[in-house]
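Lab notebook, bench 4. The sequencing result for the construct came back, and we need a structural model before the next group meeting so we can plan mutations. Quick request posted to the team channel:

Model the 3D structure of this chain.
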Amino acid sequence: MPIPVLGILTLYMNEQKHLEEKPVYQKMIIEGRKVGLDVFVFTPMDVNESKQKIYALEYDAKKGTWGRSWRSFPHMIYDRCRIQKGYRFTQLLQFRRRYSHLLFLNRPLRNKWTIYEVLSRKPEFKKYLPETHLYHGFTDAHQMLKRKPVIFLKPINGTGGRGILRIERLKENSQYYIQGRNQQRKIIAPQKIHASRLGSVLHSWNMKDRYLVQEGIPIDLPDGRVHDYRMLVQKNREGIWQLTGIAGRVGAPRSITSNLHGGGHAVTMNSILDKWIEDAENRQKVEKRAEKLGIGVAAFLEGQYGALCELALDLAINKKGHIYLLEVNPKPAREVFSQIGDADMYRQAIVRPLEYAVWLYGQREESKKTNKPQ
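Done. Here's the predicted structure in token form:
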């Protein structure tokens, strides 16, 4: 059996062809060789359709250098492309349509609102979801603020904490406190405003039908910083969903999000949970429920949308131990595990998609033999 070839599909971040996760891809290429997998990196821009060749980016571990060569299409594609504005994303959509017949480890999920709607139809998932609605206008935010002391407004396609607003109803009559991050992830100066101004402030963000309004979960630590948990579930070398790990994330000062790209930092789950929930037995139950939730959501969404090989879930946990599923991410970063110093967990996070790719290739080859005419 020939060595299976995996192409990591990504997008350039700018005209200088910068790749956001290049160090991770380098590790995947090195680890790929150890599990019997030939790995290269490419973007839709690198595909020559007339020649049916790819000008692939390859890493030479012996020389420690990156280079390029013309390659045939890989046996499998690992899609790491995240949403971005501009022509490069348009090229990606065209590539996915044109080559949908190829073997992908993972298919794209829908936007946050669609995912919320699909999950909320299942009672076993709905109990973990914070109240969420599609934002049509000021009335949606105002109505939730009457019932909830804090709400969040989030882009339905946003990543990395971009463009998020937090609104808190203050005890002072008709006063609100607004914080947030703009589309460049920069922290917006917090401000206290009167209720009469809230509508105009929200209108200026041009959010209609492109945002969610979601109840806020109390996750402020004693020092005022917010925290949550990043869970990674992945398919293993036998094609079975498995928990890889969970890490805590603590936001930067004055930040309403915990994202690492926004200045947050990762900590071990227990370093927060031990202080957050005093009862040890309750903590163990929370961790088991979280694992069951993560594996259940991954398997369910794969059934709805097609092939997946990994999924990150962002979780909030209140002091009573109730878990809230804040967000689902099909293209997860794994740097949280590197930051907390868990080398084994970080390596697993990198290697598992590769081991799954080897298993998937083997399954396909066996299927060809079985279906071969006698």
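The longest strand covers residues 241-250.
Will bring this to the meeting.
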